[in-house]
Amino acid sequence: MEWYHIAGIVILALAVLTIAIAFYCFRKVFYSPDRQPLKEDEYEIPPGEIYEVHRDQMIAWMKEARAMPYQRVSIQSHDGLTLRGRYFEYAKGAPLEIIFHGYRGNSERDLSGGVQRCFALGRNSLIVDHRGSGLSDGHVITFGVNERKDCLRWVDFAAKTFGSEQKIILVGISMGAATALMAAGEPLPENVVGVIADCGYSSQKEIIKKVVREMHLPPALVYPFIKLGARLFGHFNLEETTPLKAMETCKIPVIFLHGDTDEFIPFDMSRQNYEACKTPKRLIKVEGAGHGLAYPHDQQGYLNALREFEKEWNL
User: pTM above the 0.90 mark?
Assistant: First the structure.
C-alpha cells in the first residue's frame, strides 16, 4: 500500500473520530430528550443536597402556582418551534416580568417561587419553558444563544397581547439570567425597562470549561469538541454572543443577584457582568446562598433589594 493511501486512511479515521467525539459531546451537553408532564401529585426538585433544605418551600410554591388562576400561552420561535408558558395576572396593567429558568430545568420547577415574588411586588408574571425544556418544543439547549431570540419573541407577544405601553422586565435564573442578559444586548422596545439577573454566567465557554475541569478532564482539549458538536449537530454557534458582550450594548438598568456560596456558577461571573454593564446597575451578594437559592435563602432581603432598585429607576 502506497504511503498516500495510508495517509488518506489515517486522515479519514481521524475525521470520523473527531465527528464521533463531537456527537457524543453534543448529546451530553446540548441534547434534550422527550419530556413527559408531571402527574398531579408529582413535583420536581433540582438534584443536589443544597436543595433539600428548601424542598418543602419549593413544593409549596409549585402547589400554589398550580392552584392559582393562569392562562396558558404560546409563541412560535424564529426557527418554527412552539414555545409555551403560563401567564399569572396580579392586576391589569401592572408591570410584567417575563421569567426564564435554568439549564435542564423548567418553568414550574424553577420559577413557581418567582410567581409568588412577582405578586409580592405587585407585578404580573409570565413564566416560560425554554426550547428543549418543559412543555416547549425542541431538543437542543443552546445556553442562551437561540434562547435570547426566543426572549425577543416573548417581548413581541407581550406587546401585542397587553399593548405597546405594557412595562416589561426581563428576568432569569442561571441560564435564564444569561438569556435575559444576552437579549438585553439586542435592540429592544422602549417599554422593556429593566433586567433582573439571578446567578447568571458571564460566557458559555467559561462555564462549560469550568464544568469540564471539575470532571477532571482537560478543558483545552474537550471544549473544541463541544463547540464543534454545537455547530454540526445543534446548528448554532456557541460563541455567537455572551452575557459579557451583551452588557456592552445594553441600554436598560440591570440588577444582578448571586449567592456567594454558589459552587456551580461562581459569584465572580455576576461581578464580571456587572463591571461590563454600562447602564444603571446594582450587584447584590446574597450571603450563604447556593446556586439558584438567593430568593429562598433570603426572601425579605431579595424583595427589599428589588423594591429599592424599582424605586430608584422606576421599574
Answer: yes
C-alpha cell at 37: 408532564
Q: Would you state the cell numbers that stand for residue 237, as one nine-digit string?
A: 454557534
**What confidence tens digit (pLDDT) does each residue in 233-256 have?**
999 999 999 999 999 999 999 999
